[in-house]
Amino acid sequence: MVEVGAGGTHQARYEREIIWDSISTRLGALDIGDASLVFGRLDWIEEQGGDQLYVGRVAVWDDDQEPVTIDWRAPAAEAFYRATGSESMGLSRRRHFVTRGRELLGVEDEYFGDRNGRGRLPLVGEATLRAGLEAGRTGRLADAAATIQIEQDAIIRSPLPGVLVVQGGPGTGKTVAALHRAAYLLYTHRFPLEGQGMLVLGPNRLFLTYIEQVLPSLGEAGVEVSTLADLLPTIRVKGLDAARVSRIKGDLRMISVLRRARRDRQRPLRTDLVMGLGLRRLRLTVDQSAQIVNQARKRFRTHNRARRYIEEQVYQHLADSGARSNAPGPDVETVREQLHGSIELREALEWMWPVLTPAHFLHDLFGSRALLRSAAGSGLTPEETKLLYRPRADHASEVVWTADDASLLDEALALLGPRPGHRQTDSVRTYGHIVVDEAQDLSPMQLRMISRRSLNGSMTVVGDIAQATSAWGHDSWDSVIEHLPGDKEPSFAELTIGYRLPEPIMEVAARVLDAAVPGLIPPRSIRTEGRPPRFVPAFGNQAVTGNGQGRENGHNSLLAAVVHEVKSELDTLANGNLAVICHTAQADAISEALIAAEVDHGLVYERGLESQVTIVPVELVKGLEVDTSIVVEPADICEKLPKGMRALYVAMTRATQRLVVVYSRPLPEPLRAQEV
Question: Across 260-350, where does the E strand assignment appear?
Fold first, then answer.
């Protein structure tokens, strides 16, 4: 009973809210949508009691408080993921239920001890795992609680403290492991993490849409899932800077640039300030204003916090200047009351020490060549300084920032501090644990922004060095962790088994990997069977005439070949999805060609992967998986992106079933053997 009648006490209402909150939380945890509640069973040997335990997404008890199912994160469920033929962990049998939604499709049993003739079990629930891998994609990442493998489970159940770095190639399940680790940590360390909060960071909004169902399906709906730009809710972010600009904005040299820019906004007056108060003339001299500014710089760490001190000192000096040899000056409160609304005084205060938001501060800096030159000092070259300039908008609120600006705005917030009276809205939220996906692409400034939000240095950092395609893509994890909290020695883990890619596709992609990052070992695919990639030439009339007609014919041939392959693959595709992966500049032309051919499709930045056919610029495809991918013009991808060969490797490793490469230009060297 949670109702309170008219006239109920405050205590009763408070208790009602507590009860209702508990009920809502429990109901939310039990809401697993259309997923099956139970996906496995553990049969223990006689020496362990011979009991049976059912493993599911959440724990359920009967009326006598006896477990009907145990949560997959519970210590008793560890054997479901860790037991092998050589280390049975007390099991006689492990049973997997193969399901589609809530429909039972089959049962798979793995026996241990004398009944196991295979020795060590290489995969946990191999048939169940393969069934999941071969099922059609839905455009959203599903939870994998039923098919977690041994090396993934070791990552999931790793200790909470410190930074855990997880290296994993395409299709190794690093994102799945990271999200399930988040759910496991919340289950195991409910206190204090529920109060401290948990943050999951992804590279873009598309990626967040792709993964957003995983944690709720595991009973954890209170995790904040975000991009870096989302952590600054008052700004609008759209797009990326050019690679050269992105490289500058991500450099730690920008810390000094912003500090000098802040100092440039802390200025003595250019002329004396003279104010009238009755018959008195009050004066603040230039030298006095310089002394006030210098004292404020010494006393206060953040800019906005010093504003009140500046005002008090200005009023005090004005009051003192009104003293006469035969009469004291006016008191400070009188001066404040009489002058606080005057235009001259407000202009003087704004000149000496303006109250600044990060957006106003950075907008002023980037919109003034003079401010940029002054702030750059010797830290940036003249050419780098010019690249940071962009014309001012009429108002700072109208500025559309890039993703690379987010870390600079955050650094500015740390330097400026909260505005007076806005401490709560301008404060930085911290978290008890942070999960960072695709961390290999983050700049030092972005990593610094993430570290600022860590309450205690507890993080899970996942990615793949081979897929580092941004302007700041790292060549080793050492250059990533040096910018993360370092109170505790970081831990490292590597996922070596590839689940997504069939071996024939992985073999071709591995040649691209070797050219992109020589010496890096690709994941070992467990799916030895599969169709090899198809390479489709689209050669038109390549003899370019004076008016460029030949080049246009070649482009039209490429578009026609893409349309043909999309239609052909759709004929063989049952209920899965297909992605056309291309350079951004080609996306609109391919879309127009598909529209003309009456092929229903979507653009990934408008509808995610909701359509069966989706055009995905290669810059946004990282972290996603589809049943069939059609990679368009690999030469363009390699030539037009900062780390083009790595970007091509990303494009070649998205498909779980079929890969088609359509080209009109000579293929990059690693793929030359495939040319027709």
Answer: 273-277, 280-284
Q: Distance (Å, rounded) from C-alpha 14 to C-alpha 19?
A: 9
Assigned CATH topology for domain 500-674:
Rossmann fold (3.40.50)
pLDDT tens string 85-131: 888 899 999 999 988 878 888 888 889 876 554 434 456 767 667 77
Q: Which CATH number fits domain 163-231+433-498: 3.50.30.50, 3.40.50.740, 3.40.50.300, 3.40.30.10?
A: 3.40.50.300
pTM over 0.85: yes
Cα–Cα distance measured from residue 314 to residue 273, given in angstroms and rounded to the nearest whole number: 10
- Count of C-beta atoms within a 10 Å radius of residue 269: 20
pLDDT of residue 497: 92
What does the domain layout of the chain look like in residue ranges?
A: 1-30, 38-135, 163-231+433-498, 266-352, 500-674
| 613 confidence band (pLDDT: 50, 70, 90) | very high
Given a contact cutoff of 8 angstroms between Cβ atoms, the answer to whether 414 and 452 are in contact is yes
With a pLDDT cut of 90, the percent of the chain lying above it is 67
- Using only C-alpha atoms, the chain has a radius of gyration, in whole angstroms, of 31
Tokens at residue 327, please?
């009469």
CA–CA distances in Å: residue 513 to residues 243, 609, 645, 661: 22, 26, 8, 16
**Greatest mean pLDDT among 141-155, 394-408, 633-647:** 633-647
Furthest-apart CA atoms within the chain: distance in Å: 109
Average pLDDT, the chain: 89
Is there a common fold for 163-231+433-498 and 500-674?
yes
What token pair was written down for 332? Answer: 């400070």
